């Protein structure tokens, strides 16, 4: 093999795996063992280039002429077929140059690695490939194991004519030169160096058959002329060899390179040590070269024989050396066996590990796929769940929406029903509250009235207490003054005592003087006594005369009243109010205004005659007294005070006010200076003045109301108004009237009458409403019963003063009035008509004639105060307004009728004390 091919093989078959350098080196050593496995100490001599090793496979030279290229193609074929071999060969030198890289190499020394150790390096090719490679490849190590000497001998033995010694030498020196003779074209010269016994294993070599001996690279890149040239040279060489006699051609034993040379060569160059071996010993190259030259056969035979002789010599030497080598080989074999066992165990472990790894990988793969399946299943399940969840959500949403709609409807219905219920309840509550408010208002008004009454009472008590205090102060002042006066008098007395003592002394002297004229003094004393007795008799006669005169006065007073008429009519016109303009005032005249007026002229409404002339009728009315608008209550009372005195004298007196609503009836009767208070005051004053004349009076008052022909107690409980029934009872013998369950108030002071009037007014206002002014729709009667007793004369008197405020006398139309209002109207009209009827009946003056008192409650109540022994005064009240003119004329006409009525003589209700 030339350097070029060696280098080419080296470059093409470089072992790439650096990490497997250890085994590679071992492998390389094994390869190099072809030349490098030497006995210790002889390595340098045995070194031989493994590149010389040729495949033992034969090539048909006829079809493919033997050329240098084809000869070199065999290893190339191996190299191409199994790059492993080629690479190990190429690497051998470089590996050998680095023996220290491996302990094993160092231990075994260079080239000591047996061919069997050329196990497939631990590369990435994997165990299987290693195994296949080890089984399929022609490995020297394998051949080393399987080739025996017999086998080698059989090979060598095929060389006919070879002397046994030579054969033996060759056999033991591991060198062999095989010249095939089966085919003239098969010019392979096998010069091989087996490790032990020929080291050529044709079975392990490339399998027989046609082979492409030429390197494709060489064929493709080498110029055809050069290829042809080399083929010619090879042909010539093999031709000359064939022409040699059939004998072993001794090949001079090359001088073996020493290990040092090998190393140095490796260090200098990566080229294999072959050239060194060849150049040093001039063996193959020279031999080839010499073959190429034209030989002189005889001389050359000699030379050859010499060479063979040298070879034999060297073979003998080599035989000896080979013996040592065999021993070494045995050692190596053992070692290799151990290593192989170790390798096998490692391989087994590797195998196991790989199997475990594979199983783990499979498990991992299975787990991963299971995981992926599980993930996929989970995703599918999740999708399904999500889908179901979405559907359920949608269903729930729709259900909820339906439920919410139904709930909303129900809720709205509930709200509507609740609202209706609430409104009903609110309306009921409101009505109840309104009723309650009305009751509370009424109650509060009553409470206020009671409180006012209480306040009034308290204030009266306070005033009384203050008056008492004032009286006590006055008394105290008087006492103090008296004390002061007494002290002054004491001083005076003391002063006078001195004077008196002197006076006494003077009197004693005078007594002594008078004792001398006693008779004159006795006469003077009797004269004085007589005069005093005369004066006392005269005084008693005067008092008797006064009593007789009082009785006479009463008789005369009664006679005067009788002369005035038992029923009298006064007319009073109220003044216009501030709210009433003068234009609304009806023209009225008072002809006798300067003196006691008794006439009133009232211009009637305009009347249109048949001729169309408008005229107004002048109506003149004459009464017992006419009071104009400017008249005061006191003036009016002066005129009636004599009637009040009549009541004190034991007559029944009835004073009533008649007139339309707003004409001034209440003002005249019940105002602060009205007839009732003034009458009470007068009664008190008169009663007190009569005390000197022996009269003691008790006064009891009732205040009643006639409303709708029912009696109401205006001094009673206001809640019982219109509820409590009161009956009118008449004591016909005594001419007394009683009312059942009526409140009677003892008038112990003139101030009490104010309280009575206020209570009565309050009770009437409680019963009043806006649509029904109570004072206008009912008659009020203040009844004052006066009982007097004269403890001197034993006389008794029982008079009654009735002060009546009639309901409005205006003509009330029945049309358009219904219910309570109609009933009121009917009752008012009936009672007033009854009054007129009673007065008219009284005016007829028939004894025992029927007087229709019972036609109304009012006349029945006033039965003993109208006619008979009673004195009646009617005030006809007149409104000054033009609008009331018609009613005014009606009232005046009614009053005129009453005024024209003559009622019989009144009888005094007096009795002589039974004693
Ligand atoms: N002589 C008068 N001087 C001043 N004011 C008067 C006089 N007479 C009546 N009035 C006033 O005229 C108004 C109506 O009087 P009053 O209420 O007394 O009439 P009446 O006839 O009692 O009415 P009713 O029938 O409604 O009770 C009251 O405001 C009252 O003060």
TrEMBL record:
GO terms of biological process kind: microtubule-based movement; mitotic spindle assembly
Primary site of residence: cytoplasm
GO molecular function annotation: ATP binding; microtubule binding; minus-end-directed microtubule motor activity
Coiled coil: 329-377, 448-482, 529-566
This protein's record includes keyword Coiled coil: yes
Residue positions binding ATP: 659-666
Matching SUPFAM superfamilies: P-loop containing nucleoside triphosphate hydrolases (SSF52540)
Ranges for domain Kinesin motor: 566-901
Name of the protein: Kinesin-like protein
């Amino acid at each position: 093999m030339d350097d070029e091919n060696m280098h080419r093989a080296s470059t093409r078959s470089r072992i790439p795996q650096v990490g497997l350098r250890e085994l590679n080196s071992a492998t390389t050593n094994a390869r190099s063992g072809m030349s490098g496995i030497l006995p210790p100490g002889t390595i340098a001599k045995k070194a031989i280039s493994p590149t010389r090793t040729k495949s033992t496979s034969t090539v048909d030279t006829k079809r493919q002429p033997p050329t240098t290229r084809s000869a070199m193609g065999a290893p190339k074929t191996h190299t191409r077929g199994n790059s492993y071999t080629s690479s190990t060969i190429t690497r051998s030198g470089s590996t050998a140059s680095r023996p220290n890289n491996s302990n094993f190499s160092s231990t075994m020394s260079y080239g000591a690695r047996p061919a069997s150790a050329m196990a497939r390096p631990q590369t990435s090719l994997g165990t299987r490939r290693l195994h296949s490679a080890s089984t399929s490849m022609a490995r020297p190590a394998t051949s080393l194991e399987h080739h025996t000497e017999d086998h080698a001998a059989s090979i060598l033995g095929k060389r006919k004519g070879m002397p046994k010694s030579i054969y033996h030498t060759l056999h033991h020196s591991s060198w062999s030169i095989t010249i095939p003779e089966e085919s003239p074209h098969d010019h392979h010269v096998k010069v091989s160096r087996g490790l032990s016994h020929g080291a050529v294993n044709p079975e392990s070599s490339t399998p027989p058959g046609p082979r492409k001996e030429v390197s494709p690279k060489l064929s493709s890149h080498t110029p055809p002329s050069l290829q042809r040239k080399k083929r010619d040279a090879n042909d010539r060489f093999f031709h000359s060899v064939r022409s040699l006699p059939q004998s072993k051609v001794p090949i001079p034993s090359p001088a073996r390179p020493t290990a040092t040379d090998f190393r140095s060569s490796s260090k200098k160059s990566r080229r294999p040590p072959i050239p060194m071996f060849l150049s040093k010993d001039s063996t193959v190259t020279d031999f080839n070269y010499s073959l190429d030259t034209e030989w002189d056969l005889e001389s050359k035979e000699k030379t050859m024989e010499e060479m063979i002789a040298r070879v034999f010599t060297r073979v003998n030497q080599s035989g000896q050396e080979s013996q040592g080598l065999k021993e070494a080989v045995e050692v190596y074999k053992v070692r290799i066996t151990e290593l192989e066992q170790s390798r096998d165990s490692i391989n087994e472990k590797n195998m196991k590990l790989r199997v475990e790894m594979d199983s783990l990988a499979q498990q991992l793969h299975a787990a991963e796929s299971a995981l992926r399946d599980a993930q996929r299943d989970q995703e599918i399940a999740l999708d399904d769940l999500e889908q179901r969840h979405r559907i359920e959500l949608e269903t729930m949403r729709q259900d909820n929406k339906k439920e919410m709609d139904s709930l909303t409807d129900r809720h709205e219905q509930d709200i509507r029903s609740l609202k209706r219920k609430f409104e009903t309840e609110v309306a009921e509550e409101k009505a109840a509250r309104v009723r309650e408010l009305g009751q509370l208002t009424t109650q509060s008004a009553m409470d206020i009235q009671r409180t006012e009454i209480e306040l009034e009472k308290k204030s009266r008590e306070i005033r009384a207490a203050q008056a008492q205090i004032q009286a006590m102060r006055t008394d105290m002042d008087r006492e103090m003054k008296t004390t002061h006066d007494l002290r002054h008098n004491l001083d005076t007395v003391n002063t006078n005592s001195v004077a008196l003592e002197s006076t006494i002394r003077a009197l004693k002297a005078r007594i002594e003087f008078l004792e001398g004229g006693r008779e004159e003094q006795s006469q003077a004393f009797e004269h004085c006594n007589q005069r005093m007795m005369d004066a006392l008799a005269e005084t008693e006669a005067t008092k008797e005369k006064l009593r007789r005169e009082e009785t006479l006065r009463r008789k005369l007073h009664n006679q005067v009243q009788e002369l005035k008429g038992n029923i009298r009519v006064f007319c009073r016109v109220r003044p216009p109010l501030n709210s009433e303009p003068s234009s609304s005032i009806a023209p009225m005249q008072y002809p006798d205004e300067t003196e006691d007026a008794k006439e009133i002229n009232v211009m009637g409404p305009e009347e249109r005659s048949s001729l169309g002339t408008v005229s107004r009728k002048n109506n003149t009315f004459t009464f017992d007294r006419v009071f104009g608008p400017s008249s005061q209550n006191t003036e009016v009372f002066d005129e009636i005070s004599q009637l009040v005195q009549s009541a004190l004298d034991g007559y029944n007196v009835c004073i009533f006010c008649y007139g339309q609503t707003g004409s001034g009836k209440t003002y005249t009767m019940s105002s602060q200076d009205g007839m009732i208070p003034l009458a009470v005051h007068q009664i008190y004053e008169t009663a007190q003045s009569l005390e000197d004349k022996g009269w003691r009076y008790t006064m009891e008052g009732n205040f009643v109301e006639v409303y709708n022909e029912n009696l109401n107690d205006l001094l009673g409980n206001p809640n019982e108004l219109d509820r409590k029934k009161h009956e009118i009872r008449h004591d016909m013998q005594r001419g007394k009237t009683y009312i059942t369950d009526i409140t009677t108030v003892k008038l112990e002071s003139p101030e009490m009458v104010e309280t009575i009037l206020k209570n009565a007014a309050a009770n009437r206002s409680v019963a009043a409403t806006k649509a029904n002014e109570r004072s206008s729709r009912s008659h009020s009667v203040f009844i004052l019963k006066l009982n007097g007793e004269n403890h001197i004369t034993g006389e008794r008197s029982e008079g009654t003063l009735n002060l009546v405020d009639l309901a409005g006398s205006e003509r009330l139309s029945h049309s358009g009035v219904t219910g309570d209002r109609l009933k009121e109207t009917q009752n008012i009209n009936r009672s007033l008509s009854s009054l007129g009827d009673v007065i008219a009946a009284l005016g007829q003056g028939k004894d025992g004639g029927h007087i229709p008192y019972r036609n109304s409650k009012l006349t029945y109540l006033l039965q003993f105060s109208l006619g008979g022994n009673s004195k009646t005064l009617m005030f006809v009240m007149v409104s000054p307004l033009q609008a009331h003119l018609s009613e005014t004329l009606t009232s005046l006409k009614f009053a005129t009728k009453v005024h024209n009525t003559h009622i019989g003589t009144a009888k005094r209700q007096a009795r002589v004390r039974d004693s």
